[in-house]
Amino acid sequence: MAQMWIEILEQPEILKRSLENNSKNINFIVKSLKEKNINHVIIAARGTSHHAGIYAKYLMEIKLGIPVSIAAPSVTTLYNKPLNYDGALFIGISQSGRAQDVLEVLKAAKTQGAPTIAITNFDDSPLAKEAEFHLNCSAGEEKSVAATKTFTTQMHLLAWLVAEWAGDEEFKKELSSVPGILKKIIDDSDYIEQLVKRYRFMTECFILGRGVNYSIVLEAALKIQETTYIRARAYSISEFHHGPFAMIEQNMPVLVFAPEGPTLESAIEMINKLKDAGADVLVVSNNQDTQKLGHCYIPLPDGMSDFISPFANAVISQIFACKLSVLRGINPDAPRGLNKVTITR
Ligand code: AGP
User: Fold this and answer.
1) Which residue, among 289, 290, 285, has the nearest Cα to 306 in the 3D structure?
2) Which end of the chain is more exposed for a tag (fewer CB within 10 A), N or C?
3) CA 157 / ligand 1 centre spacing (Å)
């Protein structure tokens, strides 16, 4: 059995544990942040961790009204340009805690007095030790090169931080329901295993979504790229209209995340436009009318908000990638040319 699959299955339990281990610390961090006049947030991360950061950007902007930017580490590491971090909170995300560029940007922010939070899976990692505050994913060692459980725990901890900071009890309740939602998806995963057979010989595809699920569009493409070698490309639905749409040709596979909520209408518009252009559309949705628009669909469990849907979509994407990888005779745990820890500067 693939290690990636084992780690996908662990997620419902690990998310619960991660929250138990970090909730007091999150309360403490939020108290400290509230004493400071934080007027923007800067997040630095790479790969899958970067995608967790994008999820956090949407949450913080929507729920806290604080602008969030995703750092361009080369400004610090290669151009050596000091930035003004006045009023900023800096968050560095790295499952290994060894991302050199993230560490250097965090040090630069800290030098200027910005509060710094690290989210890693190792208390003794360089990033965890350097940051003022540390949230430990508590995911246990992740052996598969393809990150799964560290991604969903990063998202969960970031979302809980936002819920606490915003005093949003309803959101906390929703976040507490995530492990159960993930368990349901895993229990029903035979459906996805059957469906991937349809994509066995696919060589390229597009993955589209919007809003909080833009993070998952990027993550789904990365997961498919590294485990199946398929040229999967990710776009925001709004961006796809502005040029990339011209690449659509007859039978081109396109996966569209279309959860109920503020982005649904825009997703439906894109699905219809893709069908008119001859694309083969796979819809991931909890809206029954929207599911029927696709050539095929993956149902999302009922009763979850737009803010929670990225967790479900993330695990669906992981299952899709892992099952397709195995079907294509590839070992998803050891993608060619990659290591578990990648150091860039
Ligand atoms: C994840 O599936 C990838 N293998 C990779 O993008 C990874 O997320 C990236 O190298 C970041 O690593 P870090 O979180 O340990 O910094």
Assistant:
1) 285
2) N
3) 17
pTM over 0.85, yes/no: yes
Give every strand in the sheet of 133-136, ordered side by side: 68-70, 40-45, 88-93, 116-120, 133-136
Residue nearest to atom 7 of ligand 1 (CA): 47
User: What pLDDT is stored for residue 339 in this prediction?
Assistant: 86
* Ligand 1 center to 146 CA (angstroms): 8
DSSP secondary structure letter of residue 300: P
Q: Which two tokens stand for residue 12?
A: 């419902």
CB 255 within 8 A of CB 220: yes
Fold agreement (3-176, 182-327): yes
Q: Which residues contact 24 (CB under 8 A, 6 or more apart)?
A: none
For the chain, which residues score pLDDT lower than 50?
A: none
Residue 223 annotated as catalytic: no
Query: pLDDT by residue (tens digit) across 101-152?
Result: 999 999 999 999 999 999 999 999 999 999 999 999 999 999 999 999 999 9
Domain ranges of the chain: 3-176, 182-327
In angstroms, the CA 214 to CA 342 distance is 24
Q: Which CATH class is domain 182-327?
A: alpha beta
Binding pocket residue ranges, ligand 1, CB within 6 Å: 46-49, 94-96, 99, 145-147, 226, 338, 341-342
Q: Which CATH architecture has domain 3-176?
A: 3-Layer(aba) Sandwich (3.40)
CB 92 within 8 A of CB 110: no
Tokens at 55, concatenated: 């999820």
The answer to whether the CB of 230 falls within 8 A of the CB of 257 is no
Torsion, CA 213, CA 219, CA 221, CA 223, rounded to 10: -140
Alpha helix segments (H runs only) across the chain: 3-34, 47-64, 73-77, 100-111, 126-130, 149-166, 169-176, 178-187, 190-195, 214-228, 237-240, 264-276, 288-291, 309-327
Ligand 1 atom closest to the Cα of residue 102 is 16
